Amino acid sequence: MKRILQVILLLLLPLVASAQVLVEQKIDSIGIFIGQQAHLSVSVTARKGAHVQFPDFIQLPKMLVPGVEVLSWKGDTADASDGKQTITRIFTITSFDEALYSIPPMKVKVDGREYAGGKQALKVITMDVDTLHPNQFFPPKDVQDNPFSWKEWEGPIGASMLAVLLVLLMFYLLIRLKENKPIITRIRIVKRVLPHQKALSAIDKIKADHMQTSENQKAYYTRLTDTLRQYIEERFGFNAMEMTSTEIIEHLQATGDQTMINELRELFQTADLVKFAKYSTLLGENDLNLVNAVNFIDQTKQDNQPTEERIVPKLSESDKKTRKNRLTIKSLLYSLLGIVVLLLAYVIYSIIVFW
Length: 355
Prior knowledge:
Blueprint: H1 2-19, E1 22-27, E2 31-33, E3 37-47, E4 52-53, E5 62-65, E6 68-79, E7 84-94, E8 99-103, E9 107-110, E10 113-116, E11 120-125, H2 154-179, E12 188-191, H3 195-208, H4 217-236, H5 245-252, H6 258-277, H7 285-300, E13 308-311, H8 317-354
Parallel strand pairs: 2-11
Antiparallel strand pairs: 1-3, 3-7, 4-9, 5-6, 6-7, 8-11, 9-10, 12-13
């Protein structure tokens, strides 16, 4: 009994081994036109590490069966379940003869044992030919020239015409820009003489001319009071040149030392008497009034004033309008230039694509 069981197991071993290998063969199309291609795939599922050997297709094309050629092939390997793997070969086949071909099972060796897939069928058909009217067969036609269509060129032509019009408008604007001469305003920086410096320089000139000792006292006091009036106007900011001596003193009441204002009042009173009442001053009185004028200037001067003055020219309404027009024309020119460049780029692109 034991020997019988051993014999049975030995007989079943090849069947178990073959059951572990699966070969599938299929074709993606059963019918093709002459010269078309189909794909024949052969998949072998076996244990990992098994030696799988497909038919030899080294030199291609090669006849699979008479009338069916193998043009190329490619392979793929994928893992399967239960420690197995699937190795696939996809063969590209074709035929140039009309017939129904039987694709035999492709034989594959796994670990030296031969296996085969399933049989396939491939039908190759041709185009119907009218053999009753052979005179209706014509040779291949030459390359046809498409007729010119204005509609296809409406965009580029319109863009070109618009670009020309915009260029003419730009020329017109350039002429207008040349007619409107630019308004050039230069800011001048001039050296400023401070009021007390100007007044002391004028008094030094009076001394240099010895007017305080001259017989023409009216001219002396007129020049001295005019110098003081000019200084007071620039220093305190009111129109002292057009005021009387009393009005000037009243404006100065809120500023400076009262003693200095009293001395300035005496100076103006003496000057009014000399100029209008033909008053003759006492000995040394002219020098004293000159000293009082210098003291008043020294007591009220401002040393921390800027010595430079920035003079900004003022534009007239006509100049402002001209400048505004130039800015507007320049903005339009730059905008039109950008539009013209875009239009020309579109036209050039259309020509390149067409040709």
